[in-house]
Automatic annotation (TrEMBL):
Protein name stated in the entry: Tryptophan aminotransferase-related protein 1-like
Species of provenance: Raphanus sativus (Radish)
Record's keyword annotation contains S-adenosyl-L-methionine: no
Gene name, Swiss-Prot/TrEMBL: LOC108845011
GO molecular function annotation: carbon-sulfur lyase activity; transaminase activity
Residue intervals of the Alliinase C-terminal domain: 2-338
Keywords: Pyridoxal phosphate
GO biological process: amino acid metabolic process
Record-stated family: Belongs to the alliinase family.
Top-level taxon: Eukaryota
Length: 347
């Protein structure tokens, strides 16, 4: 809102009508300006390597995740290829991997106990949705790893290294909150994987909205331009905002006595901010000390969350959104403060 004039995008009705953007590029529907904006932002933040990589744009990283599964499983000899993730995992992976009943891949759930021989895909989400932990692969038997780095930005977590994995997913949704634009990108090392991902998106949606790409370009460029100017940097703003929300949530949890638990996160040196920081995840992994159905308890109090069971975990945990509108967050804190003893809850 403070820099609103600088993020206005005007698109004349006669512009960007074609399916195509750049037919010389592997990702022929990627606008060149967006590719440049993505590279510039990663360079400035230092969170991921873009050199010697193909950028594949998608309708959100959700589409890219499915494109990557299609690509890796099509190129694999073993089918269906197992897909695993350490619990608690982002519940959408399970839904997306299962609903198509594909013969190419199969959701196998918890990575820590996965013991089928042969190739597999492991999803590594870091920081993790839903519990904010910093993650590494756990299977380590030479399978393919997809790094979902949706939250690897300095307002959420210290940037401790420049990620340089073979297949990394990012999204416009979680940087400054533009989930509605539905823009995500994959940084892909292997051209064959990139081509297969492009094939998937070609068949699935014949490319990605040009209007969304243009808007994302303007906003990403603005984030890059201002990221070192303390008073204008979105990352400074976002960091202060989410830090203060976490501090207040911890205060409220403390006030409710022994009722709830929250994870603690270690500090680490952030190369972007140049100081030691903690992680302030976009979701709070709220637990309940007694055995309980915490999602149901909170729903009774008009707080909507996602139950831990959907993330392969326990019903005594829920995932709470920390990055919604101010009023929603204030109301959530207020409602949480009024729950003192979940054992009094009668279904
Ligand atoms: N990965 C993770 C870990 C997410 O949390 C989300 C959004 N909740 C996505 C992917 C999907 O993001 P997009 O809006 O880009 O489809």
């Amino acid at each position: 809102m403070k820099i609103k004039e600088r993020c206005v995008v005007v698109i004349p009705g006669w512009e960007l009508m074609s399916y195509f953007s750049d037919t010389t590029n592997v990702c022929w529907f990627l606008q060149q300006d967006l590719a440049e904006a993505i590279k510039a932002l990663h360079r400035e933040i230092g969170n991921a390597a873009t050199e010697e990589r193909y950028i594949v744009v998608g309708t959100g990283s959700s589409q890219l995740c499915q494109a990557a599964w299609f690509a890796l499983s099509s190129l694999s000899e073993a089918k269906p290829l197992s897909i695993v993730a350490a619990v608690p995992y982002y519940s959408t992976y399970e839904e997306q991997a299962s609903y198509v009943q594909s013969q190419l891949y199969k959701w196998e759930g918890e990575a820590r106990t996965f013991n089928k021989p042969g190739p597999y895909i492991e999803m590594v989400t870091s920081p993790n949705n839903p519990d904010g932990t910093i993650r590494e692969p756990v299977v380590n038997r030479g399978g393919k790893v997809i790094y979902d780095l949706a939250y690897y930005w300095p307002h959420y977590t210290p940037i401790t290294r420049r990620q340089d994995q073979d297949l990394m997913l990012f999204t416009f949704s979680k940087i400054a909150g533009h989930a509605g634009s539905r823009i995500g990108w994959a940084l892909v090392k292997d051209i064959e994987v990139a081509k297969k991902m492009v094939q998937y998106i070609t068949i699935n949606s014949i490319g990605v909205s040009k209007e969304s790409q243009i808007r994302a370009t303007t906003i990403l460029n603005e984030l890059t331009k201002t990221c070192r100017i303390k008073s204008e940097s979105f990352f400074e703003y976002g960091y202060e905002k989410i830090k203060s929300r976490w501090e207040r949530l911890r205060w409220v949890v403390d006030k409710t006595g022994d009722t709830f638990t929250l994870p603690n996160y270690p500090q680490a040196f952030c190369n972007f901010f140049g100081k030691n920081n903690s992680t302030f995840p976009a979701f709070a992994w709220l637990g309940c000390k007694e055995e309980n159905d915490l999602e149901r308890l909170l729903k009774e109090k008009k707080v909507l969350t996602r139950g831990g069971d959907r993330c392969g975990s326990d019903k005594k945990y829920v995932r709470v959104n920390m990055i919604g509108p101010n009023e929603d967050f204030e109301e959530f804190l207020h409602r949480l403060l009024t729950i003192r003893n979940p054992n009094c809850f009668e279904p």
